[in-house]
Amino acid sequence: MLDNPSYIIDTFFAIFAMTLIILMVPGFAMLEAGLVRTKNVSAVLTVNVMIYAIASMAFLLVGYEYAFGSWDHQEGMSKYAYFLFQMAFVGKVVNIMSGGVSERSRILPLAIFTFIVGAFLYPTIVNITWGANFLSGTVLDISGMADLAGSTVIHSTGGWALVAAILIMGPRRGRYKNGKVRVIPASNIPLVTLGAFLLWIGWFGFNGGSVGSIASKDNADAVALTIMNTNTAGISGAIAGWLLTYFRYRKFDITMILNGALGGLVAVTAGPDQYDMYTPILIGAIGGALVVFFVPIFDKLKMDDPVGALSVHLVNGIWGTLAVGIFVADVSILDQLKGVVVVGAIVFPLAFVIIYVINKVFTLRADDNEQLEGIDAIECGMEAYPEFKRSI
Amino acid sequence: MLDNPSYIIDTFFAIFAMTLIILMVPGFAMLEAGLVRTKNVSAVLTVNVMIYAIASMAFLLVGYEYAFGSWDHQEGMSKYAYFLFQMAFVGKVVNIMSGGVSERSRILPLAIFTFIVGAFLYPTIVNITWGANFLSGTVLDISGMADLAGSTVIHSTGGWALVAAILIMGPRRGRYKNGKVRVIPASNIPLVTLGAFLLWIGWFGFNGGSVGSIASKDNADAVALTIMNTNTAGISGAIAGWLLTYFRYRKFDITMILNGALGGLVAVTAGPDQYDMYTPILIGAIGGALVVFFVPIFDKLKMDDPVGALSVHLVNGIWGTLAVGIFVADVSILDQLKGVVVVGAIVFPLAFVIIYVINKVFTLRADDNEQLEGIDAIECGMEAYPEFKRSI
Amino acid sequence: MLDNPSYIIDTFFAIFAMTLIILMVPGFAMLEAGLVRTKNVSAVLTVNVMIYAIASMAFLLVGYEYAFGSWDHQEGMSKYAYFLFQMAFVGKVVNIMSGGVSERSRILPLAIFTFIVGAFLYPTIVNITWGANFLSGTVLDISGMADLAGSTVIHSTGGWALVAAILIMGPRRGRYKNGKVRVIPASNIPLVTLGAFLLWIGWFGFNGGSVGSIASKDNADAVALTIMNTNTAGISGAIAGWLLTYFRYRKFDITMILNGALGGLVAVTAGPDQYDMYTPILIGAIGGALVVFFVPIFDKLKMDDPVGALSVHLVNGIWGTLAVGIFVADVSILDQLKGVVVVGAIVFPLAFVIIYVINKVFTLRADDNEQLEGIDAIECGMEAYPEFKRSI
């Protein structure tokens, strides 16, 4: 017989979930590379690769132990597998922020910010939610918040950092002129589609793996229900994104359909294990609708976000966390709200100060001339598509 | 000890298989986006995303229960995992059809057709083969057909729907002129290659997961043999596609090599668990050869199919189903033939009527001027590669 | 209870690992398609597809039994799963070689070379290291070499074959002129990035699966540590590649960052199960640094290698094998060195003779005019991006 079968199976399952999440690295990279203009594609890709490398290294060296208190807190599976699973999350927080400031940010300051997020900022939030919890017993204790896989811990955290960055950096050159929004079309729709689906598939690992164990009948059901509900919110968000844009503009806008799906996926992430199998249809549809409504609102506020990350991650991170309080009987909406507020109240000012200082010392924002030339030329010395003639 | 270890392992295995199959969503999307002209790429991608969302939603709301009789028919694994695995199949049927009518179809009618397929048409076929079987005991009972993972249930079904669609819609503008076939080259070969390999990897989940359980020594062997045979038919189909085109044209045609591989994969899908490990070499080689021979035949019949779906899915779906009867001693070729005929006799007329009505009410076919301008401009208001200058 | 739980779990785990490795097929294809010029992209993709098909077929028909002595040598899991896992490796050896001679090689001779490698050359190396070992008891016995997943068996082997090919074929037309190296920029950076990450994820399966079993507490830990260390060496190599190029050129060179990561991954591959969780930081950093230093060295030697395969695979294959002897107490550096030398002394002359003969009979090198026109036009009759206007 096997010694320790649940240890073996849960280690295997965490490794499986981790590999799906790592698919989100090329997922984010392709999504963002497809959404920005060709002159900024190499820079966006470089940033994505560096975020993964630096955030993971910072978490290995500093952040993991800070977040969870020790390397040996985990007993049900291999500690290495648990680290891998948690490490796979870290870069995502910076991805959300970096995506929203692409086409105008320099690379080195983002690299420094990434290290700080991976070593300190994100682990702080993990510490007080899923981890060692240094706020335990204080009035700020938010461990009562239900957030299975990070609607707040990951997505709002990244979203608040993005708000700080946008306020400090301002919009891209020429984005808002005479009160009008200049449309800047995505340069490569196949990459956008590929990236969105790699993210989608990664989400199965993100949420399914967050159940923590598959090694009992109940847990196997919980994992399967979690993944099913995750997917349902995604398809529902896509359909909402489609219908709302179609009936307004009579066009099929694939970027809105995909961002609707991603909004639905973020929204379900706080509680996919706790819903019945129909509730995520509603949660996801609202998630997709929120994306459609908030994208123009942020533009009205002149908060320039080339990839829609504020609507997808921040708005739906909040919505998704509250939704557990609304739809699950034994989860308190006040606990959920408190979690949302406390995390925002910690992340936003910290991120603001960090980014402000980084911007002063290293100049985060590429100036207008540099933006006109393209970040690729300035920072990478390398075009993404050097042989293809530009039409614009 | 673990309670219910086979339940746990089979739930995990179904989730694993499902994630591989979901890779086929970007797989089909990239394959088709690479095969069509750049002016139709956004539309093709939009259709692929919408098919996944709508077909899955229809199956969740209506189709699954119709196909299998109840949500609780499955006892060996989590019912949610079993649903996920089955749901991952649904969109494929429409993918086969939509790919074959790309560059000339409008999106909304396809979306409506997708819902009908996911809620009703595909579940009808599943019902009488893998499911509740309302034809049980009647003269039309085809539950004796061996079709492990859908050479007939998925691939021929999609293929018959495509025949109906092509007959109703006609060819693309300018495809057949003065008795000649105008070659319309694929616009992006890397995407074609990427898409084909995502499909290939998805096939491991499709066929391996269809064994139904991995949780005994015999089943573990059956799953591994199934995946090995699946892969062998793919490589054999690729080699056949290569050799037959190379010796005729003295050129290496990667689209034929990849379609040959896909043809081999379709062909082996009815019985990969029942062959020894060398038979799939023959089955796949014939599958690849059928693609090479049938692509020009369909063009002679003026059945315009930009991605070769008729040859890959319909012809090889039939061949693969018959092959089990030929190569496996205790499977009757007559049962196989009966299954092929009954499914065709149900799907083709139903699909024809449905598509005919949809075409009358919503106009499925983009007219010649719209095709000239490109479906992207007409339907999406968005180019796939707006910054790249076109050479043609 | 389950009969034979470890057999079931290890079969499942081998299948999981194999699917990750198969992701390396599109991984190599995208990486190379992105690194070469657009006029050679279809050819590069065709070669990648054919390598997978032909190498796997050769291994199935001949190589596997030669390498391991019999189909039944494996008892802990399904023999079909073990074959699949081993088969997934084979094409990689040729990928390393073919990538390094791209933009100047004809396809048919590569196909013939692939068959010989899959049937004979690679199985010979597997035989004397992981397999039946016909050198057992002789002075050349290198079974004492620690090489978990092939720093030497896969990567050096491919690298030595590449050295032979480069010596026979010479550089690309116009690469070295008047003592200067003409820079030939990569044509599609998103594909390079996507490809590198598919390889990275595949590596988890490559190295994790090579532990051979996950079905005990110790093995589960070993697998998880192996994957963690693999990833750590990758991120460390990426950071080294970044910093060394950044401080020299003040630019962010994503191709060097990604090749640095791949160098780190190759370097850790000989012993990721034997290091503690910090050692791979050093091993990977040296791996990344070696890539940065050796790429210009090979150019000085006029060994033209468009994808950097010599530095990534050969140099780091050697470094990684020696590193186990340096960092692991009970592994002898002399055994490691002996393994490196013996494999090189077998592979290089054999590959040289085989490629020399193939080149004489079939002309492996495309001549200067053909290279100017592009291998796609000569060999495939098909452009990779026919609708995109070239700027150069």
Walk me through the structure:
Three copies of one chain form a homotrimer. By secondary structure, chain A is mainly α. The first copy, chain A, is 70% helix and 1% strand. The first copy, chain A, has helices at residues 5-22, 24-35, 41-68, 79-100, 107-129, 151-169, 189-210, 217-249, 254-268, 279-300, 309-327, 333-362, 368-373, 375-380, and strands at residues 176-177, 180-181. Chain A has a two-stranded antiparallel sheet with strand order 1-2. In chain A, helix 2 (24-35) runs antiparallel to helix 3 and helix 5 (107-129) packs antiparallel against helix 12. The interface between A and C is large, with 62 and 63 residues.
Topology record:
The structure is a homotrimer of 392-residue chains.
Chain A: H1 5-22, H2 24-35, H3 41-68, H4 79-100, H5 107-129, H6 151-169, E1 176-177, E2 180-181, H7 189-210, H8 217-249, H9 254-268, H10 279-300, H11 309-327, H12 333-362, H13 368-373, H14 375-380
Antiparallel strand pairs in A: 1-2
Helix pairs in contact in A: 1-4, 1-7, 2-3, 2-4, 2-7, 3-4, 3-5, 4-5, 4-6, 5-12, 6-11, 6-12, 7-8, 7-9, 8-9, 8-10, 9-10, 9-11, 10-11, 11-12
